[in-house]
Specification:
Layout (H helix, E strand, L loop, with lengths): L1 E4 L10 H5 L3 E7 L4 E5 L4 E5 L6 E6 L2 H10 L6 E8 L2 E8 L7 E2 L5 H5 L5 H12 L3 E2 L6 E2 L4
Parallel strand pairs: 1-7
Antiparallel strand pairs: 1-5, 2-5, 3-4, 3-8, 6-7, 9-10
Length: about 150
C-alpha cells in the first residue's frame, strides 16, 4: 500500500527509521492544495478542507508496517487513514479524526520547515554520540541518543 507521510515520519525525521525501516521510499510529494496542516505540539496533523498543499514523502508499506503505523498514529482515536490527492495520484495518509480548534495552522504545509528540524538530525546526533563515546542530544531537535543506539 502507498502511504503519504508528512510530519515526524518523513525521511530524516525522528520517527522515520523506527517506523518505516521495512517500507520502501517511493518519492517526495506534495498534495493538491485542498488541506490544512495543524501544529499539535510535537507533531502535525492534517484535515481535509483548506487551500494548502502538504509536503511529504510516499512509501510503499506492507500490511505489518501499516498495522504498526496505525497503532503509532492512534487510529482511530487521533487519526484515521484516508485517501489524499498528491500530485500524480492518490495515497492513503493519516488525517485527523476530530477537529482541533486549539491548534495553530501551519500555513506552509511543510512540517520540517515549520519546526526547523532538518533532515537526518538523528543521524548527526548518533555520529556525535559515537565520537564522544557517550549519550548525546541532537542540537536541532533535542532527540536523545545513546552512543550504542
Amino acid at each position: 500500500m502507498r502511504i503519504f507521510v508528512y510530519g515526524t515520519l518523513r525521511r530524516g525525521q525522528h520517527a522515520n527509521a523506527r517506523m518505516l525501516s521495512g517500507a520502501t521510499f517511493v518519492r517526495s510529494a506534495r498534495t493538491t492544495p485542498k488541506y490544512t496542516m495543524l501544529d499539535l505540539g510535537g507533531f502535525p496533523g492534517i484535515r481535509v478542507g483548506g487551500s494548502t498543499a502538504i509536503l511529504g514523502d510516499i512509501y510503499e508499506a506492507d500490511e505489518p508496517t501499516v498495522a504498526a503505523l496505525d497503532r503509532y498514529e492512534g487510529v482511530p482515536r487521533l487519526y484515521v487513514r484516508e485517501w489524499v490527492y498528491v500530485l500524480g495520484g492518490v495515497c492513503e495518509a493519516y488525517v485527523l479524526a476530530r477537529p482541533h480548534p486549539e491548534a495553530n495552522v501551519v500555513a506552509s504545509g511543510d512540517w520540517v520547515k515549520h519546526t526547523g528540524r532538518g533532515p537526518d538530525c538523528d543521524a548527526e546526533a548518533k555520529r556525535v554520540a559515537e565520537s564522544v563515546g557517550a549519550g548525546w542530544a541532537c542540537g536541532v531537535c533535542g532527540n536523545q541518543l545513546a552512543a550504542d543506539a
